[in-house]
Amino acid sequence: xxxxxxxxxxxxxxxxxxxxxxxxxxxxxxxxxxxxxxxxxxxxxxxxxxxxxxxxxxxxxxxxxxxxxxxxxxxxxxxxxxxxxxxxxxxxxxxxxxxxxxxxxxxxxxxxxxxxxxxxxxxxxxxxxxxxxxxxxxxxxxxxxxxxxxxxxxxxxxxxxxxxxxxxxxxxxxxxxxxxxxxxxxxxxxxxxxxxxxxxxxxxxxxxxxxxxxxxxxxxxxxxxxxxxxxxxxxxxxxxxxxxxxxxxxxxxxxxxxxxxxxxxxxxxxxxxxxxxxxxxxxxxxxxxxxxxxxxxxxxxxxxxxxxxxxxxxxxxxxxxxxxxxxxx
Length: 329
Known about the structure:
This protein is of the alpha/beta class. It has 12 helices and 12 strands. It has helices at about 5-10, 15-20, 30-45, 50-55, 70-85, 100-115, 130-135, 160-170, 190-205, 220-230, 245-255, 290-305, and strands at about 60-65, 90-95, 115-120, 140-145, 155, 180, 210-215, 240, 265-270, 285, 315, 320. The chain has a 6-stranded parallel β-sheet with strand order 2-1-3-4-5-11, sandwiched between helices. A 6-stranded mixed β-sheet has the order 7-6-8-9-10-12, sandwiched between helices. The chain is elongated.
């Protein structure tokens, strides 16, 4: 069977470089790492996984713990993480927390037991149990939401500003009773989107109407919330919706009540889901750079794995409003 020395000879590098490249060390030049992997593939070299992990005390695996695997936003984040990790030889294990702190905690325990190289997670609530990662020296990065009470590597979107701009767009279109359907209290993205909505109404010198509903980040919850709002004596004539899964529930509620989106009620939703431009009318959206969030988080995690002493990095990306027929008058 081919050995590390055989791979090194074919790639024209040292055996130490082969070891670092095949173990996914980010300190190896990407072109050099690709040359090593190509040589290993040509020779049919297979490293001894258990022995390698015992030497390194970790697996060349990254755990990605996201809130909702059905949400295209998180799916795109996962793709960004995987593409970057794969380039340097890491595999990615996807875990779905379902916005449950208990499930998140269980996955963190499994990540520790399996000695993963690092964890990328979207925190599920106002508290977090990542201290157990820090105590064991496991690298971690937060995405979409910061870790409560933690000064850690994090990749965010300025979602408050995005919500303000989306609401200001609805104000500029002449809507008078603008409502907001957002996520649970204590979830940073839900709180920020509500705050941005209120910022825009305040800037427009509009009184904040009692047209806010908070529910889980799911279609069913948004469906109930929309039906409740539509039943009010003065229902909203426009809605800001906190994510694309909720938008599905809102559209269902509008259809059930015979209310026409884009004509009777203006709509803007967060996240440019693949179907958003295909419904009638096409949905105006706040497009977040989900793939870039995942890629940036993976790069931060690899840097943290390589140097655990480096200062924490906070990366904030922007979002953009895409105006379509659902919000235009």
